[in-house]
Amino acid sequence: MQHTRTYPIGTPGAPWGDAERAAWRAAQVRQRSHADDVVARIDALRDRFDVQAYGSLDHGDRSYPLLAIRSRDWNPALPVAVVTGGVHGYETSGVLGALEFAEQAGEGYAGRINLLVVPCVSPWGYEHVQRWNADAIDPNRSFRDNSPAPESAALVGLLAPLRGAVLVHVDLHETTDTDESEFRPALAARDGRPFEPGGIPDGFYLVDDSVRPQPAFQQAIIEAVARVTHIAPADENGEMIGAKVVAPGVIEYPLAELGLCAGITGARYVTTTEVYPDSPQTTPAECNAAQVASIVAALDYALAHR
């Protein structure tokens, strides 16, 4: 059944052009500071890690550095672990979870694995609490060669030399109530399609790679996170967000085919995390802790099963 909902930008049934994208961008309001919330915390880690600037984004009078946190004593003989957050800038626990992992647990992996942590892939999206970038493009459908999203293209370029060396990649995400109230209606309007309401899983879950699934790896993460916060149940159809639940708290997508961030490293062990901070059963701090727990569990499992 098709549903209609009027979105304030565009004409129902007609995909957006340049004028609609410009109108959408003009409506976005800067709500927080990437420099204060992210860059300052990365700078505070410079005495413990190397910090690499792998590009910058310019939007009007603002310039955003793209920063990665790297193990100080990088050893080419060791495997690599990649952690990415803030691919969707509004997903706060992805950004804060990546930072908290580096601050709290990163040094514990020295000499065991090379860490590359990118806490905020989409700084404009972070500041404007937006899923898309400033051009109304979803970075997490754009991780491919000749990407139309500069955020995605920069990360692809950063990680390209490491392809084949990455053992594990954890991409941190969350779903909020605004997915249903704003972002999905905006997507339907942008693409000239009718909006079809969906549901939001209440709890933590993972997205595995359907092409190269690692069920034991995913389950190790679920077990660790279950000690921190609740795991999302399947719906009445045995699904979450339209995908079959293949194990408690786990669904699968063809990551590389869809241009998703977790599909770009070619790692043996990959996962995308999802938390639901608007759940009455959790708190933002608990969601951040769940992201940290997922990273630690992923790295520990990968190191034990190389």
Automatic annotation (TrEMBL):
One of its GO terms (biological process) is proteolysis. PROSITE patterns: PEPTIDASE_M14 (PS52035). One of its GO terms (molecular function) is metallocarboxypeptidase activity. It holds the Pfam family DUF2817. The active site is at E274 (proton donor/acceptor). Residues 30-306 form the Peptidase M14 domain. CDD domains: M14_REP34-like (cd06231). It comes from the Bacteria. Belongs to the peptidase M14 family. This is Peptidase.
